[in-house]
Amino acid sequence: MADSNFLLSNYEELVQNHSSQFDPQIASLQELVMTRMQELREAEQSLVEAQAIELKRITDALASDARCLLSTPGLRTFVQELKQTKSKNWYTRKSEFSIAEDPTTWLLATLSLPIGLSNYQTHEDLDGYDDERNFIGYSYTLSLRLSSVERSVEIPLKRIYNVNESRETSAKEQIDYYISGEVEDLLEEMKYTESQKQQLAAEISTLVGYSLKIFALQPTRAIFNYSSTGED
């Protein structure tokens, strides 16, 4: 029968040899990586701060008059995609968009009607309940101002019922079912013809829907996934 003490001593010697050979190199490599990552973060910081300043400038412009987005290529693409999207829900308010694909030609661009968008926030509801089921809900809120009248608008984004079931509210559903009604109410007392109000409601609702993409922007940071090397 083999001497167990002898066997263990051989193994422990191998472990010690392994440790003495590789641990200093691993520690040196870890220190090198951490130092270099710190250098990169410091070099990146000024650009991240510049992005944050630019995003603040954009949100300030939206608060003043969101019609500044009418000439952006992103809004035109957004409109084109919406016009091709069919809602899956029977309760969607409108079956199709009657607005032009070029937002610079909208009625909204010809009127003195500033559209203020501000106070964008995201929300998490851990105690949502629907159809006898619990869910975690995510939504946005923002303040919508048309000329001198203003109100808060809540727009559902996503519901998570369990790990295997969730539902997202599409951009078309957000606009048709949650934004349009609020816009129509704000336009109700304004001195426009009914056809103008309908046209403006469609255009403003689309503009608000697109603005959610702008508000959600965050400064970009470089991503590097690193984990220290350990023994298996």
Strand order of the largest sheet: 1-2-3-4
Total beta strands = 4
Helix content: 40-55%
The main pleated sheet reads as: 4 strands, antiparallel
Number of helices: 4
Strand content: 15-25%
Structural class: alpha+beta
Which geometry do the CA atoms define? Answer: elongated
- What distance separates the N and C termini? 30 Å
What letter string, H or E per element, gives the SSE order? HHEEEEHH
How many discrete domains? 1
The pLDDT mean sits at 88
Poorly predicted spans: none
> What Rg do the Cα atoms give?
28 Å
Give your account of this protein's structure.
The protein contains 4 helices and 4 strands; from the N terminus they run H-H-E-E-E-E-H-H. The chain is α+β, with helices and mostly antiparallel strands. Strands 1-2-3-4 form a 4-stranded antiparallel β-sheet. A hairpin with a 2-residue loop joins strand 1 and strand 2 (133-146). The longest helix is centred in the first third of the chain and has 62 residues, at 4-65. It is elongated and about 100 Å long. It starts with a helix and ends in a 17-residue tail after the last helix. The mean pLDDT is 88.
